[in-house]
Amino acid sequence: MIPFNKPHITGKEITYIKDAVDFGHISGNGKYTKMCHRYFEERWGIKKALLTTSCTDALEMCALLLNISPGDEVIMPSYTFVSTAQAFVRQGAKIVFIDSLNDHPGLDPDKIEEVITARTKVIVSVHYAGVACDMEKIMGLAAKYNLFVVEDAAQAIDSFFVSPNGDHRILGSIGHLAAFSFHETKNIQCGEGGLLVINDERFVKRAEIIWEKGTNRAEFFRGEVNKYGWVDIGSSFLPSDIIAAFLYAQLENLAQIQQKRLLIWQKYHDLLSDLAPEFFQLPVTHKFATNNGHIFYLVINKADVRDDLIKYLKSKDIMVVFHYLSLYNSPYFINKHDGRSLPMSEMFSNQLLRLPLYYELELTQIEMICSHIRDFFRSNSN
Ligand SMILES: *Cc1c(COP(=O)(O)O)cnc(C)c1O
């Protein structure tokens, strides 16, 4: 059986966990947490990195830092994971879902301006499949209307926005705040884990307090204050140093993991390109974006054919999956939506298919998967 995903273990995880245990500090903000923070801050040129227990948690921290309160409006794509919206809903925000691009599941930046009101506070850019949103347009709108931008960079590690002048800016370093995921389905992982990135200086101090249950504990341990106490709202957003030790092993292998994932992605692309656009569309990487090999997906020309292909491949012991169900017409949200139709989001919900992509996937397995896909389309003439 070829599973859809298989979490990759680099080999050093247990060694580093043992070291963390032997070191004697396994609660949060220990030695490996600091090593992970340093990795991101030094290599990415960001102001502040804080590991969290998930990307969902990092997004919740964003909502707290931005003081989201009842009635505030947050603009985001409908084609995204529940957490992108949930983090803001919990603070009472009104979510304003917008549509995807015609050729990519990411948000259509030309749909933002028409939904901005006096209550709009935040735009959330979700970099689907690690492919950048047009951050130049989004940051331009944010500046014009005095809004904040949160990058949901859950899938976007080691990927870039390419400015018109050719400059590469790493995703997560552009918005005021950004959130990454290290869930086991992501490129690098620690089971469950996440990262909050703070690019706007104004949020640095408070982020550390919210992260540590609303206390100034981090400042205390740096010797900057002589006692610590309750100074703000917050929660326990920081992971154990055991988790950080696991993650550090993955970070050390990032380049190798990325190289392999891109190789797999390219192999799929090469082997399937002659079937497009007759039966499906291949994934698009815009000229302002790079590919980080997070997802290889096909957009099948007909929804019922997509569902038949899932069943067909399952009968061959190959697990392929669809992705997000559009959030605007979900059971929780349908009565809250303002009635705008979001046809592209709907289309990607019904027609997008993700193929297995994980470090251990072998080239011969990819060839086999692609030949079954070829048989399905050629013999059924679907
Ligand atoms: C995976 C994912 C999340 C949630 O990440 P967790 O670490 O599981 O909380 C949020 N947004 C997007 C776009 C994701 O892909």
Please characterize this protein's 3D structure.
- The protein has about 375 residues and is α/β, with parallel strands linked by helices.
- The chain has helices at about 15-25, 30-45, 55-65, 80-90, 135-145, 205-210, 215-220, 240-250, 255-270, 305-315, 345-350, 365-380, and strands spanning about 50, 75, 95-100, 120-125, 150, 160, 170, 175-180, 195-200, 280, 295-300, 350-355.
- The chain has a seven-stranded mixed β-sheet, sandwiched between helices. Strands 10-11-12 form a three-stranded antiparallel β-sheet. Strands 6-7 form a two-stranded antiparallel sheet.
- α9 (about 255-270) packs parallel to α12 (about 365-380).
- The model has no long low-confidence stretch (mean pLDDT about 95).
- The structure holds pyridoxal-5'-phosphate.
- Pyridoxal-5'-phosphate (PLP) binds near residues 54, 55, 152, 181 and 183.
Annotation keywords:
single chain, alpha/beta, three-stranded antiparallel sheet, 12 helices, 12 strands, globular
Which term fits the overall shape? Answer: globular
State the separation between the terminal residues, measured CA to CA: 25 Å
Structural class: alpha/beta
Strand content: 5-15%
Order of helices and strands: HHEHEHEEHEEEEEHHHHEEHHEH
Q: How much helix, percentage-wise, in residues?
A: 25-40%
Total number of strands: 12
Radius of gyration: 21 Å
Low-confidence stretches: none
Give the biggest beta sheet: 7 strands, mixed
Named once each, the bound ligands are: pyridoxal-5'-phosphate
Count of individual helical segments: 12
The pLDDT mean sits at 97
| Major beta sheet, strand line-up | 1-9-8-5-4-2-3
